[in-house]
Amino acid sequence: MNAPETIPRTIPAPPDRAWPAEGNSRIPYWAYTDPAIYAREQQLIFGGRSWNYVCLAAEIPNAGDYKRTFIGEKPVVVTREADGGIHCFENRCAHRGVQFCQKHLGNAKEFMCPYHQWTYNMKGDLIGVPFMRGVKKQGGMPADFKREEHGLRKLKVAERNGAVFASFADDMEPFADYLGASILPLYDRVFDGRELEVLGYQRQLIPANWKLMFENIKDPYHATLLHVFLVSFGLFRADQPSSVRMDATGRHGALISWKAAVASEGDVQDMKSFQQLKLIDPLLLQPEREFPEFTVVMTTLWPNIIIQQQSNTLAMRQLITRGPESFELAWTYFGYKGEPAELRMKRLRQANLMGPSGYVSMDDSEVMKFSQDGIRPYTQHEGVMEMGGRDWKDEPHMVTEGVIRGFYDYYRGVMGL
Amino acid sequence: MNYETLSPRELRLEVEALYGDYAETLNDEAFEAWPAFFTERAFYQITSRENHERNLPIGLMRCESRGMLQDRVVAIRQTAYYGPRSIRRLISGVRTHGWGEGEMRGVLKATASYLAVETLPDELTRVFNAGKYIDELVVEDGALRFASRICVYDTLLIPNTLIYPL
Ligand SMILES: [Fe+2]
Questions:
Q1: A63 C-alpha to center of ligand 1: Å?
Q2: ipTM of the predicted structure?
Q3: What is the rounded CA–CA span in Å between residue A43 and residue A149?
Q4: Cis omega before residue A185 (within 30°)?
Q5: Least enclosed by CB within 10 Å: which of A47, A232, B22, B140?
Q6: What's the number of domains chain A is made of?
Q7: pLDDT reading at A416 higher than 80
């Protein structure tokens, strides 16, 4: 067994990095570029007291199935054991650090590091060390070397209705408590116990700090302004009924909206890009009401996942950090096993709105690059976040940046900033 | 021209000419001319090799008609927000795989490799997307058109966005 690693709640802040006096309504630009801040995030956020999304259970349905993924920038493997249990451990040989698993998805009986053939079972226990007792009584490991002390670093695992989360902390609260009473029902709305089916993957490398992605999905203010497609084709308007919701800590958030009768033009006059367009092939946008109450729920879970329910497109958007100024956004689209073919077809068509080529998402990816490009040279400056006030709370509208302020309130606590 | 009576070599030259026109149309950003390369009910998709090999149906772009291709062009021209860029597609290794039979009568299967390089204003030109075209061609109004074009890319990690078609 590995000795349980003590996860510090906080470490001293870098002396030259003081958060602006205005508090959560300001974001210092060094938070997006400083390598020391990034290293601290790896330790305290992704490697700390958090439940990190790692995969859907449907990706590893059978005994021996595995998925290779990342938490922050640390490579991990998630496996399905013969008894049906799910395990997660670091993809780093306990011997010399080799990343032994190289395929995104696969099936194996055991993992063998190619370098010296150290072998691990699907739980991450070390089960084989070649020449452990030497060759012809020469060499070999010291007599007191115990395989049990050199297994892979194991993570805690939580599964809830088909999505799998892992944590480096040994004493995490249960996943449902972690989500909190206001976010849990939004999670259970999509993950309601029905069996899931993966419909496709997309991966993009976005040249921006990972927090800009969370800011983007926690920011309903931009939706009708940047996304001309949504407005032009009548999918979304600033006067549409909507709300924002957070958990008690501010770390998780949700943007919620639903369809209602079209109101007057008055309130949308601020949208300079407003024009009405019609699709030549209307098949693309014929959503059907699938979930109760809301048509769009975008849930952001600390620290690495966005759960997307945009009409009939369901997707996990996993953030994998690749340095202070770059992250991978890994999309996993899914539906439900055995769902009607027509509904399945709607998911495939509406996926045109999402991802690196999505009619909506492409705008966000481009803007994140330009944010990073604008921020990079100005480490002494800061962003202003005052839409909807300077505090953070749930609101029955979208003209607010409060969910971003809630995120940074929690972020600063974890980071000691 | 009766394409079905051409020798394999003549046919390949015709397909190469079509691919050349297609690439130049997109390289020149003449997007309005792009849907005309396809039939009315054509299928067009850009998807990754990992999705294609696992038969996962979602890719980056999916069009099920010429109308959906035209809608893509409207989005590129009028609604999408993106920075300026040039994408240049290079096509090689064009191969034809013969005319189909039975239900696939009149359908010519063809494949090719493509490489797309991207140039952004403040950056060096970089390899952007590499992959394979898997095509079904038919003769319409005396010309070869795409009944289906699937672009299967090796480049699993898309450098930020893929705005223009391949
Ligand atoms: Fe957006």
A1: 39
A2: 0.97
A3: 23
A4: no
A5: B140
A6: 2
A7: yes
